[in-house]
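User
Please review the sequence:
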Amino acid sequence: MGILSDTGRRRAEEFRSQLRQFHGATDGVQAFTVDPARAQEIHLLMAQDASPYLGLIDNQPRSDMRGDVLYMGDSGLVSSRTNTAAPGTERTLKSVHSLDKNTYDMYPVERDIKIGYSVIDSWSHLPNFMDVWAAMVRRAIGNDILRVGWNGTSYAASTDMTTYPQGQDVAKGWLELARDSDSAEDYYVDGSGGEVALGSEEFPNLDYIVATTKGRVHVVYRNDPNLVAIVSQNLIDHEEQQFYKQNGRKPTEKSKLLENGIIVKTYGGLPAYSPPFLPDGVVGCTTWKNLQRLFQPSSMRRKVEDKPELNAYADWNSDNECYAIGDYRAFALVDGITIEETQPLE
């Protein structure tokens, strides 16, 4: 059995006490509700500790587990004239958010983390011990938010990490929501089975695939200045390999580095992003704020306790949350894209 050093145990217990104070919990209480006022602050810190992409999507605190999805995008024309001199004629209000019926349902999600005694001992000499622990937990949770957001396909009563290592059964993520939507016929293309093959005669390059995907976005959003392309890394890698084969060291203007460290390329006239955990063979065109994660601040629970039988401390976390797409008309998706092997250049 592993043994936690006296220093390590003292620092771990200090962390537990400071964590309770941070959230306004009574000293000595083991499990506590996370202070809702701190919830948004925690989510902002996740973007620093896990991935800057968490700061691009729309993280919305919502008080109810079920309700209407809201997206303050361009819903169309709001300008008009009305002849109010005509009897019974009144001016008509126009909504500035999507009018399509779009609802959400939150489900409980558990994020339970084991921190081994050896890890705690390795941190115990650090003056910022609490910050290191908290950042590690936020990083793990933040990464999973993106992982499930891109890969989630269902809600299982009991999830199976072995069968679904990308959290496919934790929740329905953005891609699955787009596939299952009532408007999928207009905005979703299943490219599997060779229907969409990068490098083929019909789809010769990534610029063309992105441009045709953008063409499926509803005309209201098609020229939105915030529209971006979300592209799988395997497609970008293939495109770059073909470029280097043909152009050698000739410079390309396709990439630039943003201040937050994200490398952005340009395909099909749109800034193209390849976020972590995005599955292979995907091209999507949307705005980042159209990709939503909704969470209920009042549902956030946390408990940190010693688990000597595991030679570790347990950091139990849970809340109610779900993913949503603000307006399906603003999200065109092609997935299942394959790569057609080209003949080597002579």
